[in-house]
């Protein structure tokens, strides 16, 4: 026998024995694990990641794992089919004596997730779940015993942690409203209440609409007063949302925050926008391993963070089971029951400590380490997740291209961690400014156009809104409503004006002299009144009373003045005649009255003066001495007293009547006449008032007519109704008809122009809010406010129904009231307004007679003074040139004559001459008898005339 074949056989036997030994050794280090893998339809990334994990186990024998996997897939909304599939696979594994060591659950949420949880809990199968939600969200695992908490584990996926960054951003930026849009890459069902719990932020969480409704969805969210948008989704979904928004939604009063699981750059076709962009970053210590897994095992699906999460979770769960099996901690008498054997009370009691084994795994992770709570007080489920960071950037997009990306900071994944800000100034620029849309109607002094003003308007309401903005802290943009109406409802229940804008969510605030009305409050909300009880009043043209400087002369007619003047001259002449011819007059009895102190000769001049001064309080002076003259004087005094008294009384009455010449003084006066036309503004609250009052009268009349013509009434009952005369009341019906015939002005300016164009024959009266009329009267001297206010209503700021601005504005207005700021504003715009005219008002005229009507008296004074001056000049001229005596010097030879001459010279002013007559009087009065004519006669030839 050839030895070589014998040696070959020996070698083969030896090799076979060695192979058996190697296999024996390998069998001792490799652990066979049975896995029941349950996934959800459309969660393909979990399938791929688990397959890669199994492939990784196969290619890395040092792990000592051999995995046999059973796969079950279920629908999120169909629990029955999923439970049947689970029971079938589980029962088959028990029949094959291959019971699962682990149930790997990657269902996301909903019925499928709860079905798996219920299944594992009932049958006592160790489970590692990657479902969404915290512990309270896992309804089937809410009340687990400590033993079951050891083997029923849940780890939150990254897509469940990423939305928490919204909470951190809102807290940091103090955002008061938010719209959170998400696509199918995120699950937000369980976040509706928990995400922003205990944060005072109005928010809406909703899925992204399809292409047809996406634009209208954003529009509706904006109409809910939301201007902060958070978009959670893939980059494709984010791009669609951004491109569906209007360009105006990227202005400074809006803020966009887009959050994705993907790591690519943001692109979208937007004209001009700056967007906060958040995406996850892998752990720096795991980048080499991540790159190796991507290239070697081809795990390149997006989003990477979710794929590597499933990979690491699967690998960690397998290693944890292997460690339990190899350590001998796995129960040797593990009890399994089938779905059919389960009766609701016979769940096997296992003592498997899968949680400890899961925590103690040292296998490195690929994207980020797992964050596992420490301490028994913090539950594992709902608090365990993969750690990662979110990169926060500001992306500027111009004309569809990203032109600039600036890093703002980072956020470390956590349930409550704040954001780490690197550029505080830049991140604050990304906040949405609180800018409210204000619609108004121009009506002075509440709202007036002013191109120089910051907002293009000024007025009482603008100042009021600015003061409120200082308290509430907001900005606003103001526009004038197109139809110029505050808001009225037509017969079809449709509104116009500012009310329409508020209903359609196109306006946040309705500002102006807007009355609080019951029908308006059914569709919008009003703040507390900022101006109480403003009624309707009447504005008319101010009657122009012609003024004259000599109006006091018009009190008496011209013929009366002529008769008075004739009586004056006649009485003066008669008094002169009586004094001249009466034997008892002074001029005819000088010796008799020579010792009287007053010696008055009544010539023509004195008679005229006496009669004139008798008409004045000064009196006429000394009366004539003769009885006949005194009778004439007494008659003239009586006549003058009657004339003066009559003139004074008539002057006062005349001026008073001229001031009270007002044709209409109330609404009743207006309704009872037909000469003056009247109407309110078209579409105003005053128009609504008169229209509805007319309608009420018509309804009352119909009711009365039906009652009166009711045949079922007895004669006594009908007689009781008969006292209500026909028509029941038609005051407002007639007024409304008159208003329609007169034509309703469309603006206050048109109404004022119609008033000014009206004449005394056909006047026009405007009926409107008293505040508007009062301001027009203050700024126009030709207008007046007539009558008392009626139908009073307060003014308030209008907001959308249910708007939070109502409470904020209420608090601000009440604060301003307490500070008396509103009173100061009223003073500023109704009393201290710079544009109001300083004109004479009817109320001012009641204090006295104006200078325009009595100024002629002063002219009379000046004329009299002028005439007196002229007379003085005439007297001087007459005295100097027409009636001047010759004057000579006097010389005496004797000592006495010299003394007299000396006395005369001393008395006579220097440089002046003494007339001969004056000299006689002087020497006589001083008892100088030494001056005799005979003494002067010899020297007459020596004197020369001076003139």
Automatic annotation (TrEMBL):
User: Which GO cellular component terms, listed alphabetically, does the Swiss-Prot or TrEMBL entry include?
Assistant: plasma membrane
Q: Which residues form the Ionotropic glutamate receptor L-glutamate and glycine-binding domain?
A: 445-504
* UniProt keyword list: Cell membrane, Disulfide bond, Glycoprotein, Ion channel, Ion transport, Ligand-gated ion channel, Membrane, Receptor, Signal, Transmembrane, Transmembrane helix, Transport
Major subcellular location class:
membrane
Q: List the disulfide bonds.
A: 87-339, 781-839
The entry's L-glutamate-binding residues are 515, 520, 685, 769
Would you indicate the residue range of the signal peptide? 1-27
Q: Where in the cell is it found?
A: Cell membrane
Task: Indicate the family of this protein.
Answer: Belongs to the glutamate-gated ion channel (TC 1.A.10.1) family.
Spell out the protein name for this chain: Ionotropic receptor 25a
